[in-house]
Design goal:
- The structure holds 2 protein chains of 2 kinds.
- By secondary structure, chain A is α+β, with helices and mostly antiparallel strands.
- Chain A is built from 16 helices and 26 strands.
- In chain A, the strands form 5 sheets. In chain A, strands 1, 2, 3, 4, 5, 6 and 7 form a 7-stranded antiparallel sheet that branches. In chain A, strands 12-21-20-17-18 form a 5-stranded antiparallel sheet.
- In chain A, helix 9 crosses helix 10, helix 14 packs antiparallel against helix 15 and helix 15 packs antiparallel against helix 16.
- By secondary structure, chain B is α/β, with parallel strands linked by helices.
- Chain B has a single domain, classed as Transcription Regulator spoIIAA (2-Layer Sandwich), CATH 3.30.750.
- Chain B is 41% helix and 34% strand.
- Chain B has 4 helices and 5 strands.
- The chains are: A alpha+beta, B alpha/beta.
Chain lengths: 708, 100
């Protein structure tokens, strides 16, 4: 099983694909390489043929020229010989002159027919030849031991009586090779007198043939028409055996196909003696460069393939990592989405007309916070900014938010609230994160604003124009424990607006990385005041829009939080309470509602009806909005302008619209009366209107009753 | 909210004092246990000091009424104030109880 798993892992489809790509690339490159190599080889072959042709052509020309010169020499000197035939001894100088006349001719003889000169005996052969130092000596060659009439050539000549070239031969011990041109000499009476033979030295031919070779290992040969070797490379250059192998191939004694390493090119003199010129090339050398190139090519190809394989592998691995990373990112993204929801849930949802706020995190979760609620006729609010961004900041933000809620329940001095928050934060935070925070408490009846600051941006105070609220900077929270945050206060006149923000607004960057700045914020606020579009919602909307349009396409780099509070005492009375889903907490609700309604003049029965309507609604939420056994909350916002009382009941339970429920039948007799179902009926009867809406996951039920 | 149960002349006299809201209903129900354990006797609810009643209180009264009537007993509400009377009117309870 383990082996199988291993194999399956090893041969997963991705790997097969990758191997396939490398193989296909290898085959392709190899095919191209082979085709290219063959083409080059053919071109090279043609080139060799061409060069051979040129060299051989030149050689033929040279040899023919030499032979012709010898023939001409003899022809031109024939008259001189004929002139001196009468005096046999004068023929020696004649021959000396003759061979002196042509540098190719190394010796010359006159082989007289037997008894031509009776005085000279049967044979007479005057001969002149050049010594190594160039001096010319003469001698009479014929002797009983050297009977030229027995020579094959002489016999042949006597039969044919035409000039001819002898086959080359070696003469004496100097190992030089010679060829002789012989022509008949006739005397004045037209009788054949002698054969004149001029010897030419052919030994230079071998050198000449082998001097101008197109390749280092090439060599040239000169063969007679019968295929006998006349001249060739020196044994030092090419071993004799090789030379004779070629001779045998040319003569058909060996098969050329047995010697694939040799390229043999052949040409022939156009005239007598029809010698054959042979040029031999070794394919090994011709194609050596090409073979080397091919080897290099293969090497490069292998290298390239190795790199390709490596890159594909790397790419595949990176891609896999990327896939894994994006899956991980998607998971984290999902969790962040949930975190964002949780964080958004913590923010106030329902805004009275005199308060508006917004928080736009730069990332999924933010480090900004704001909150407000009303307790005992006082509006508690805060705005804060945790250093940094992302999850750590968000967690700290949640902690601060909860702490603010808990601490401000029992403490209404902002300075004290900050003091407690700071000490809690210093005790718990080892990450050196800090939080700027502004906390305020506004008495809704008197307009007295108490506030304290912990390093947060100074809010704007808006009356007829925008100015900056006098605020002591102080240290942020979380820097030093036991820091004092000075309590400040001022009394707001009705209509005054406070505009609070985090640095996500003033530090909003445009494409040129220029910050929006506090001056610009002030200008926009002033413009709103001038236009009269100055409700908290208007102001928050205007500044949010300004920040976005200023940033243009640039991504938001910091959380943007805006909170705007207008002190609008008017005749309004506001209170709120949050309860758990436990009917025992109805006692607290009863106190709350009696206290609230007690501040408004109204009939006792009306007040009792309102109280009943609210209690029935809240109890209904406590009993049925949340799953049994699960904790949930219900918040009641009570407000009144002394002419009308309004209760807003908010819960995060199952969506449920009580206004859609039918009224209970109140006419049934005792035994048929159901025990439940009276609550909603009573609520309906006790108020003027009930309206329900579902907002942001909350049930919002509003009860209104006129008391005039 | 306090609930006092007395037996006078073969009748149960239940005296409510305070506000019978939802929070007080459970406690009140416990206090009514002796009444429900001895069905058959007439019951008088003295509401002179009952300042307020919510539907949970009404349910309590209804369940006592159902059981008492089934046992052939009579149930009377005495001295209900205007606030409580409104609730009884609105729920049709005035037709179920004898109100003195």
């Amino acid at each position: 099983m383990i082996t199988l798993q291993f194999d399956m892992k090893k041969f997963d489809s991705g790997r097969i694909t990758r191997i396939g790509i490398v193989i296909v690339a290898a085959v392709l490159v190899e095919v191209i390489s082979v085709v290219q190599y063959q083409r080059l080889r053919n071109m090279m072959g043609e080139e060799v043929n061409l060069r051979s042709k040129v060299v051989l052509g030149a050689m033929v020309h040279e040899i023919e020229h030499m032979l012709e010169l010898t023939e001409i020499t003899l022809a031109e000197n024939k008259w001189d010989i004929m002139r001196h035939l009468s005096n046999p001894d004068s023929l020696f100088p004649v021959m000396t002159r003759l061979i002196d006349d042509n540098p190719n001719v190394v010796g010359g003889c006159l082989a007289f027919l037997p008894y031509y000169y009776p005085s000279k005996g049967r044979l007479f052969e005057p001969y002149a030849h050049k010594l190594a130092d160039g001096t010319i000596v003469t001698e009479q060659l014929a002797s009983p031991e050297h009977d030229y009439t027995q020579n094959q050539e002489f016999i042949w000549a006597m039969e044919h009586l035409i000039p001819f070239w002898t086959d080359p031969y070696l003469y004496g011990t100097d190992s030089l090779s010679y060829a002789t041109y012989s022509a008949p000499i006739y005397d004045s009476e037209g009788r054949l007198a002698a054969w004149c033979g001029l010897d030419i030295d052919l030994s230079w031919l071998g050198d000449t043939l082998n001097t101008h070779q197109p390749f280092h290992s090439s060599f040239g040969l000169l063969l007679t028409i019968e295929g006998n070797l006349v001249a060739g490379p020196s044994p030092a250059q090419i071993p004799r055996e090789e030379v004779f192998e070629v001779v045998d191939i040319v003569n058909g004694r060996l098969s050329a196909s047995d010697f694939p390493g040799l390229v043999i090119r052949k040409t022939q003199l156009d005239k007598e003696p029809y010698w054959q010129l042979i040029q031999v090339h070794k394919t090994e050398e011709i194609y050596r460069r090409m073979t080397q190139m091919r080897h290099q090519h293969i090497l490069f190809m292998l290298l390239g393939l190795a790199i390709l394989a490596f890159m594909i592998n790397r790419y595949a691995r990176n891609e896999r990592k990327l896939r894994e990373a994006s899956a991980e990112q998607a998971r984290i993204g999902g969790e962040l989405e949930v975190a964002r929801d949780i964080q958004q849930q913590m923010l106030p949802k329902v805004f009275p007309s005199y308060i508006y706020g917004t928080l736009e995190p730069a990332l999924e979760v933010g480090g900004d916070l704001y909150d407000f609620y009303i307790r005992d006729g006082k509006l508690f609010f805060c705005i804060g900014d945790v250093s940094g961004k992302g999850v750590p900041s968000a967690m700290l933000m949640s902690m601060i938010h909860s702490l603010f809620r808990v601490v401000s329940r029992k403490e209404e001095n902002p300075s004290q609230i900050l003091w407690t928050l700071n000490n809690q934060l210093c005790a718990g935070d080892d990450n050196n994160m800090f939080v700027t925070c502004f906390v305020g408490c506004l008495d809704l009846y008197t307009g007295k604003l108490n506030y304290a600051n912990a390093g947060h941006d100074k809010p704007f105070l808006l009356t007829t124009s925008a100015s900056i609220l006098p605020v002591k900077a102080n240290l942020p929270l979380g820097v030093y424990p036991m820091t004092e945050f000075e309590l400040q206060s001022m009394t707001l006149s009705p209509g005054t607006t406070l505009f609070l923000y985090t640095d996500g607004l003033t530090e909003a960057k445009n494409k040129e990385h220029k910050a929006l700045g506090r001056e610009r914020v002030q200008q926009v606020l002033d413009a709103c005041l001038a236009k009269g579009t100055d409700t908290p919602e208007d102001l928050v909307g205007a500044l949010s829009a300004e920040a976005h349009s200023f940033a243009g396409g640039s991504s938001q780099s910091d959380d943007l939080t805006l909170l705007c509070i207008r002190y609008q005492p008017g005749d309004n009375l506001r209170k709120q309470i949050t309860l758990g889903n436990n009917t025992e907490e109805v006692a607290a609700l009863s106190d709350f509602v009696k206290d609230f309604l007690g501040q408004i003049e109204m009939e006792r029965r009306v007040a009792a009806g309102l109280r009943l309507a609210l209690e029935e609604t809240v109890v209904n939420v406590m009993n049925y909005a949340y799953p049994a056994g699960e904790h949930g909350e219900v918040t009641v916002y009570a407000d009144s302008n002394y002419k009308e009382v309004r209760f807003t009941v908010v819960d995060a339970g199952f969506p449920f619209d009580p206004t859609a429920v039918l009224s209970a039948d109140t006419t049934l007799d005792v035994q048929n009366r159901p025990i439940g179902g009276l609550g909603i009926h009573l609520t309906r009867k006790m108020v003027d209107s009930i309206s329900y809406s579902r907002k942001h996951g909350f049930n919002v039920l509003t009860l209104t009753k006129s008391i005039s | 909210m306090t609930t006092r149960v007395e037996e006078l002349d073969g009748k149960f006299v239940v005296t409510f004092s305070g506000e019978l809201d939802t929070a007080a209903a459970a406690e009140t129900e416990k206090a009514l246990a002796p009444v429900l354990e001895n069905l058959g006797k007439d019951i008088v609810f003295d509401c002179t000091e009952l300042e307020y009643i919510a539907s949970s209180g009404l349910r309590l009264l209804l369940s006592v009424l159902k059981k008492a009537q089934a046992a052939g007993a009579h149930v009377v509400l005495k001295n209900v104030n205007d606030v409580v009377k409104d609730v009884l009117d609105l729920t049709g309870f005035v037709a179920l109880f004898d109100i003195e």
